[in-house]
Amino acid sequence: MPFRRRPAGRPRTRAGAVALALVAAVLTVPAEAAGAAVLPVPQPATLVSANPADTTPHARDGETRAFAQIGNTVYVGGTFTQIRQTAGSAWLTRPYLFAYDRGTGAISGSFLPALDGAVNTLVAGPGGTLIVGGAFKTVNGVSRKNLVALHPGTGATIGGWVGRSDGGTVRDLALHGNQLYVAGAFNWLNGTAHAGLGRLDATTGAVDPSFTVDATVGRHGTSSYVWTIDVTADGRTLAVGGNFQAVNGLPRNQLALVNLAGTPSVLDWSTEKFVPPCAWPETFVHYVQDVEFGADGSWFVVGTNGGAGWPAAYCDALVRFETGARGAGQLGTWVDYTGTDTITSVEVADNVIYLGGHFRWLNNPHASDAAGPGAIDRLGIAAVTPATGLPVNWNPRRSGGSALPAGATGWGSSVPVLWRGPDGLHFGQNSDGMGDEYHGRLGMFPLAGGRTITPRTPPTATSGNLYVSVAPGQVARVPFSGSALGAPTTATQANYTGAGATWRVDDRIYWSRAVAGSPTGSRIDISMFNGGTIGVPWEASGYNDWFNPAAMTGAFFLGGRLYYTRSGANALYYRYFETDGNYLGATEFTLPTTGVTWSNVRGMAWVGGRIVHGATDGALRAVPFDPTATPAVNGAATTPVSPVAGLSWATPSMFFSVQ
Questions:
Q1: 12 pLDDT above the threshold of 90
Q2: What is the reported pLDDT for 35?
Q3: What are the residues facing 508 on neighbouring strands?
Q4: How many CA atoms lie within 13 Å of 460's alpha carbon, on the beta-carbon side?
Q5: What span, in angstroms and rounded, lies between the C-alpha atoms of 387 and 352?
Q6: Which residue pairs from 318-322 have beta carbons closer than 8 angstroms and sit at least 24 positions apart in sequence?
Q7: Is the dihedral of CA 510, 512, 514, 517 positive or negative?
Q8: Per residue in 89-109, pLDDT tens?
Q9: Given a cut of 50, is residue 134 above it in pLDDT?
Q10: What is the pLDDT of residues 486-499, one digit of tens each?
Q11: CB atoms closer than 10 angstroms to residue 61
């Protein structure tokens, strides 16, 4: 069983401390777009600090694969053999497992277990125990095959805990209540036949005979194993990923869901996106590397490696799936491609998805081993929003800069584990730099010093004002009741020149601005706006320079999506758009609509559930809009808005505001 990539079974947040969308990919080819089943809504989120804590110890070699915390003690497992307190301290020989104080970072001198092999996963068990899984045969001089419970203060073996993995390594553990789920390359647990999966009594280590779910038939003629698992917070669903093609005899390639309510059984949920091989199947036998549920269990994310292979397969990508979907052929709610770089670990906490690996970019579906149109720089560590999969403005970078001491490794192939503990996001890696600082093989991004993300939204009122450009630097403000227009007033807006499609979000407008010398001749700019003077514009993000917004003939923002029409095209399109960082999704999607000639549309706004839009004939119209429906727009329901003498709505530069 190889440990090249995501060797990081880990306790989930609820166990490690005692204490839209269309059924399509956000960054895959538009051909996958289908009728909307789930439309995730952006939610408030809390980010950890991008500055790693300065007090965590360092490991010298190997990699860190697991964390757990009991009280004020953090436990660290992996393949390392030496550790030290600071960059100037002497190395201590502490192979595979050690502990340190959560507050001071001081390495424990009393927790001294002796294992003869790697630690892959840790769980803080019931009664203050530390449950350890990995690739070892003896613990503290006594035979303990790949699974053991230790005293958290001394590392002594708890003799009455009987769990063991016979003849195969333990890759991952997940705890819910007193039920301990075990995953790995074994065929036996406690002398009972179990292929890759089992469930134990967490207090005693005894096998639960009611759990009989086996993952079998390895890919490409190899031996099967389970690489990663997670269980929902309510304990009703288990996600399983790894090197297998069948679960309890049912076709499930690399990924399966198990119903844990009553007698455990395989759920009617499967996807074909992990069936084809990626670029190098002899190296990437399986490419599902990590799986993690969202807080409410209604969705989960999968991180993968594998190299080239998309869009036929979800290779080198982060994918969101919906837990409640049923049937074969499931597609990702969204997919964020790296451009053929590996993702080795994922963690979900506080409405943020964190991911680690040896990737260099996200939002990069159009290039391989290079930055393509839309690529957003993220070196080995990133945070994305669960609603769209786009990155948020958090970019510590997996680099040591000039801070690395002699002998340290600047870059490695893997971030085997991300784990959100009580104090922050712990990371384990096989290199020594993070956030341009020295962090030998491990560290933590503290919750202290982080920030809250509040999603920006368009106006939700059903009445207000429509603004429309009537001449260069001249804007008319037109009261709008939702069905009728009032008398316009015109004002000079010197900052709003060269304007094209415009959309209002919270206290600002985003707009297409003609800018000489920019890569496309236009760019997405931002101006603050409170109903008075439109503010001095600035570029929303340099990562959007590949996009030509001047081609848009109208636009509005809603629910993490930028909806728009474009010149010469008879369709309503959207891209994902993340306002925390102002990043534009790299792939264009087409909404199913009927009865509207979109090529004639000029200017759009979302007002009270309807698209209010102008047209080449100068008239204003409104049509109901439901992005979860098929069609999302039915032109038969269009209603005209009574005209105002002398005012034309034949310009892309129109937006709605309450002020």
A1: no
A2: 36
A3: 505, 528
A4: 3
A5: 10
A6: 318/343, 318/346, 318/353, 318/355, 318/362, 318/384, 318/389, 319/25, 319/273, 320/21, 320/40, 320/386, 320/389, 321/271, 322/37, 322/38, 322/298
A7: positive
A8: 999 999 999 999 999 999 999
A9: yes
A10: 999 999 999 999 99
A11: 16
Q: What pLDDT score does 20 carry? A: 29
Q: 530's torsion region: left (phi>0), alpha (psi -120 to 50) or beta?
A: alpha
CB 311 within 8 A of CB 317: no
Q: Which two tokens stand for residue 171?
A: 């890759």
- Compute the distance between CA of residue 631 and CA of residue 619 in angstroms, rounded to an integer: 24
Strand duo 334-337 + 343-349: pairing: unpaired
106 is written with which tokens? 């001081």
Q: Is 324 helix (H, G, I), strand (E, B) or coil?
A: coil
**Torsion 533-538-541-546 (CA) sign:** positive
Structure confidence at residue 310 (pLDDT): 86
Residue that the structure tokens 């809390």 belong to: 46
In angstroms, the CA 269 to CA 160 distance is: 39
DSSP for residue 207? B
Residue pair 352/385 in contact by the 8 Å Cβ criterion: yes
Per-residue pLDDT at 167: 81
Chain centre to alpha carbon of residue 301:
7
Cα separations (Å) of 291 from 75, 132, 229? 22, 20, 6
| Non-local CB neighbours of 280 within 8 Å, separated by 6+ positions | 306, 307
Among all chains, which residue has been given the structure tokens 């960082």? 581
Token readout for 401 is 């800069």
In order, the DSSP letters of 351-404 are TEEEEEES--EES-TT-SSS--TT-EE--SEEEE-TTT--B-S----S--GGGP
pTM above 0.85, yes or no: yes
Instruction: Supply the pLDDT for residue 26.
Output: 35
Are the CB atoms for 24 and 32 separated by under 8 Å? yes
Q: Are 374 and 543 spatial neighbours (Cβ–Cβ below 8 Å)?
A: yes
Torsion 543-546-550-553 (CA) sign: negative
Assess contact for 416 and 602: CB atoms under 8 A.
no
Which of 657, 595, 655, 590 has its CA nearest to residue 627? 590
CA 341 to chain centre: 15
Distance between CA 436 and CA 439 in Å, rounded?
A: 9
Count how many residues are written for the chain: 659
Please, are residues 297 and 323 in contact by the beta-carbon 8 Å criterion? yes
The amino acid present at 6, given as its one-letter code, is R
Instruction: Name the one residue in this structure whose structure tokens are 């929003």.
Output: 385
pLDDT of residue 235: 98
Q: Which residues pair with 446 in a beta bridge?
A: 424
Backbone angles phi, psi at 550, to 5 degrees: -65, -20
Percent of the chain with pLDDT over 90: 93
Q: H-type helices in 17-97, by residue range? A: none
Q: Locate 18 and state its tokens.
A: 């005692």
Q: Compute the distance between CA of residue 425 and CA of residue 636 in angstroms, rounded to an integer.
A: 52
Q: For 473, phi and psi rounded to 5 degrees?
A: 75, 10
Whole-number Å distance between alpha carbons of 178 and 204 = 9
